């Protein structure tokens, strides 16, 4: 065996043993088309690139900026999105010709709408790239007609449809951050549509105001009368590193009218500061991807406004990871009111200012200030301090998912406490719903919203309607923020830890917490089923009693046959465990397979009852009961169907009594959605399978359709459950023994290596590097891998081989970046 593979295994082990590495696995997964999460979609053959979204005040109308068109979609119906109006707005043949003559790709020359904002109660202001010659227009929001001939769009909209920009209209004035030239190297933050004595304003061309920025977002804070812009740019203050990217927040005052001589028609209130998403002794997550504003809770001061941002890293050690950080408005304000750096124009070096402070940069109301003061403001715009995240730590880190968009909502739970819920979009097209707890982030679920990777996408949350809209080139998708009825037992409802959902003990249903007055069973912080669902506290032992074990599902076997018993997972966070009444499952006789199933050779000693238990968060439930019996006649292969004795009831608890709401849907169609996705090493089952098996338990033991992931054996109604491959058992036995021997020798060698490592080397290898590639797998891994391959193929995805790279740390992080330059941040 190669030394290399042992080494990497040791690393993997060390990574697993590391104290705070918790994996952020969504508890439940809904791949595209899952019945438990029904999505409403709008797409049309003559509409494409539906990526700019604007939601009407009441949330009944969704305006969409698409390619060569603006759409008005009626989203007030629950089950449909209806196209109300469409405005075609495309460049002429001549424009397109010129665009392609200038060397642009024809596919990038149409008019991609990039600005879509309400101007007033009757009109929308829209701008598009218009064949690399941006234009803007006024659109009547009722009739969707263009009312005035198009405006010039320079400085309001990018030329290139792939360039990011931001725009916001406040009091009829348009504030934008975009590039203002064809080549894309004149970035500007500016104000347009100003009237009367107010002038349109822009940034001075002074060196260093913006350094090759990527604009992300802008936010208006009414109490401050300020607009905040978020972007990333080259951090010239760190001139010792080539092209070090920093994330920034910048501000301008709405009252700004520019200076009288100095800074005429230029911002006098522009200031910028670094946003730092970094844990102590870690490399910073320095590249901002998206940010959303969480207004303060009712009654709290505006200073408690929070900004939740997604950040990724410029360095490859952290590639594929993303972090969420939150920043408090108060902290941003105090950084802007502190000291500023100065740029030495000869050496182009930034330093902390030493000369006397003549004015307060970033202060509103400087229009009457002296030239001296304005000159000072013009030179001092980069705050000396950085804005640090709330609690000086990262809110959440995901090692497995590259998040790119988020929205945030405060949700009042049944206990009247507020919880922060994040909706995060992954590059692979899944929407994650995460609740932030004291103990870290908990991902309640993931829902697949698009299939192909999308270069441009956007997301809008409608809090009053409880809906999220995602716009991509595949169309617009409407996702309800929760579907509580998916959880059909109290235990499932509580284990989900979804602040939107609680268990109604009267109607025995998991319901939306905001829709009901009754006191609901819910425990977001701990997810404690035993305390919350008082009627399901019985353990399986108490339920069945030592002598009252029910017969279970009958499995008829011949002696010496290899039996494989399946056990569905209750969720992706549950662990499966097999038990036999009055006897232990010795590892000499039983093989626990990666998918939770149990394999053994039928001998007189192994006949009898088997229970599969699923444990999640300290709560245990029975997922399956089998009775393995010797076939009466070894020749007869007649399928045996076993019916639960009508008199006996294990359905005494809520956990099993109520049939799930989706019971009538065909179970047989489900296993397609059983997802094994990238980064998963074990084939996990989506929780829908639980319903399948629960139904089996609650009704009787018929109709259970279950696909074995590995052998594609189908266990249908009345068929014996184990794989009936009579005479191959010798082979199986040999395989099992070989596996055992291999495992043991591997373990010993590994121990040896760990010890050797300790003595011979001081520098621990990098944890979290992908370790296992196909020719370095142990036989067990190989099996898990091929199983994974199989499931992945069924899902049309290539599996991810980096087992240990799927580990991240939430809350306080410990670093492993010893080899990299330390940032003086
Ligand atoms: C919610 O879940 C139930 C049960 O699985 C399903 O029947 C229903 O269609 C789902 N509703 C939505 C809107 O996804
Ligand atoms: C427009 O959509 C197509 C797919 O339909 C995609 O390939 C292209 O990148 C999109 N362009 C923009 C600018 O979003
Ligand atoms: C909204 O703005 C448009 C364009 O300036 C103007 O024609 C229209 O009268 C305004 N509507 C209202 C209600 O102020
Ligand atoms: C400041 O400027 C405003 C107009 O910009 C003017 O109305 C006001 O009188 C000025 N105040 C002082 C103290 O000069």
Short description:
With 825 residues, this protein is of the alpha+beta class. 15% of the residues lie in helices and 30% in strands.
Which structural category do the helix and sheet elements fall into? Answer: alpha+beta
Which shape, going by the Cα principal axes? Answer: globular
**How many H/I helices?**
11
Runs with pLDDT <50, length 5+? Answer: 1-21, 536-549, 636-730, 761-825
What is the averaged pLDDT score? 77
Q: Give the C-level CATH assignment of one domain.
A: Mainly Beta
By CATH, the superfamily of one domain comes out as YVTN repeat-like/Quinoprotein amine dehydrogenase
Distance between the termini: 45 Å
What is the name of the CATH architecture of one domain? 7 Propeller
Any key phrases for this structure?
binds 2-acetamido-2-deoxy-beta-D-glucopyranose; 825 residues; alpha+beta; seven-stranded mixed sheet; globular; five-stranded mixed sheet
């Amino acid at each position: 065996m190669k030394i290399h593979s042992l080494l990497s295994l040791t690393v993997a082990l060390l990574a697993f043993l590391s104290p705070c590495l918790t994996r952020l696995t969504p508890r439940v997964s809904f791949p595209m088309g899952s019945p438990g999460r029904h999505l409403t979609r709008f797409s049309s053959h003559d509409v494409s690139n539906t990526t700019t979204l604007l939601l009407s005040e009441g949330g009944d109308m969704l305006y969409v900026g698409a390619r060569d068109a603006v759409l008005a979609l009626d989203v007030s119906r629950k089950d449909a999105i209806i196209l109300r109006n469409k405005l075609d707005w495309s460049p002429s043949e001549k424009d397109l010709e010129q665009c392609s003559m200038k060397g642009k790709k024809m596919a990038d020359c149409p008019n991609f709408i990039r600005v879509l904002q309400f101007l007033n109660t009757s009109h929308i202001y829209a701008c598009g790239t218009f064949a690399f010659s941006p234009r803007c227009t006024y659109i009547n929001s009722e009739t969707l007609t263009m009312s005035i001939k198009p405006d010039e769009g320079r400085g309001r909209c990018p030329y290139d449809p792939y360039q990011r920009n931001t725009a916001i209209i406040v009091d009829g004035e348009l504030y934008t951050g975009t590039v203002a030239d064809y080549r894309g190297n004149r970035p500007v933050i500016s104000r347009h549509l100003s009237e009367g004595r107010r002038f349109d304003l822009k940034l001075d061309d002074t060196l260093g105001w913006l350094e090759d920025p990527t604009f992300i977002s802008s936010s208006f804070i009414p109490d401050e009368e300020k607009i905040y812009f978020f972007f990333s740019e080259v951090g010239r203050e760190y001139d010792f590193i080539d092209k070090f990217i920093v994330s920034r927040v910048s501000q301008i005052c709405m009252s700004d009218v520019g200076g009288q001589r100095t800074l005429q028609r230029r911002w006098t209130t522009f200031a910028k500061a670094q946003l730092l998403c970094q844990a102590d002794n870690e490399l910073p997550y320095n590249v901002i991807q998206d940010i959303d504003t969480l207004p303060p809770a009712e009654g709290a001061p505006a200073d408690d406004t929070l900004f939740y941002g997604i950040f990724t890293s410029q360095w490859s050690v952290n590639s594929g990871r993303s972090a969420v950080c939150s920043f408090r408005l108060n902290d941003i304000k105090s950084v802007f009111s502190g000291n500023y750096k100065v740029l030495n124009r000869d050496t182009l070096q930034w330093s902390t200012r030493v000369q006397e402070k003549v004015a307060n940069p970033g202060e509103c109301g400087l229009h009457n200030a002296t030239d001296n003061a304005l000159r000072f403001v013009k030179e001092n715009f980069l705050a000396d301090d950085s804005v640090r995240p709330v609690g000086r730590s990262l809110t959440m880190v995901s090692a497995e998912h590259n998040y790119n968009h988020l929205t945030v909502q405060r949700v009042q739970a049944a206990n009247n406490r507020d919880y922060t819920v994040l909706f995060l979009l992954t590059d692979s097209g899944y929407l994650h719903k995460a609740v932030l707890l004291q103990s870290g982030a908990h991902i309640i679920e993931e829902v697949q919203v698009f299939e192909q990777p999308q270069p441009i996408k956007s997301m809008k949350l409608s809090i009053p309607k409880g809906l999220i809209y995602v716009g991509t080139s595949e169309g617009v998708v409407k996702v309800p923020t929760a579907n509580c009825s998916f959880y059909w037992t109290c235990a499932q409802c509580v284990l989900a830890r979804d602040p939107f959902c609680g268990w109604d003990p009267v109607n025995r249903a998991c319901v939306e917490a905001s829709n009901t007055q009754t006191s609901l069973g819910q425990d977001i912080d701990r997810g404690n089923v035993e305390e919350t669902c008082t009627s399901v506290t019985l353990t399986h032992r108490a339920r069945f009693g030592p002598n009252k074990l029910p017969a279970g599902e009958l499995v008829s076997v011949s002696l010496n046959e290899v039996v494989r018993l399946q056990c569905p997972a209750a969720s992706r966070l549950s662990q499966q465990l097999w038990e036999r009444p009055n006897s232990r499952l010795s590892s000499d006789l039983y093989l626990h397979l990666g998918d939770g199933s149990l394999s053994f050779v039928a001998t007189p000693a192994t006949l009898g009852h088997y229970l599969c238990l699923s444990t999640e968060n300290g709560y245990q439930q029975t997922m399956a009961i089998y009775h393995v019996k010797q076939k009466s006649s070894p020749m007869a292969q007649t399928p045996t169907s076993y019916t639960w004795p009508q008199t006996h009831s294990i359905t005494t608890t809520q956990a099993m009594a109520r049939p799930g709401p989706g019971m009538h849907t065909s179970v047989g169609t489900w296993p397609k959605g059983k997802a094994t996705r990238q980064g998963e090493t074990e084939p996990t089952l989506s929780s829908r399978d639980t319903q399948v098996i629960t139904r089996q338990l609650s009704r009787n033991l018929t109709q259970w359709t279950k696909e074995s992931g590995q052998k594609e054996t189908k266990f249908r109604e009345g068929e014996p459950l184990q794989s009936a491959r009579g005479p191959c058992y010798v082979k199986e036995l040999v395989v099992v023994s070989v596996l055992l021997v291999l495992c043991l020798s591997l373990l010993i060698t590994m121990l040896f290596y760990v010890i050797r490592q300790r003595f011979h080397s001081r520098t621990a290898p990098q944890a979290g590097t992908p370790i296992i590639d196909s020719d370095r797998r142990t036989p067990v891994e190989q099996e898990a891998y091929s199983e994974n391959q199989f499931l992945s193929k069924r899902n049309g995805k290539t599996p991810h081989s980096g087992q240990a790279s799927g580990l991240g740390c939430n809350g306080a992080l410990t670093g492993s970046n010893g080899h990299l330059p330390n940032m003086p941040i």
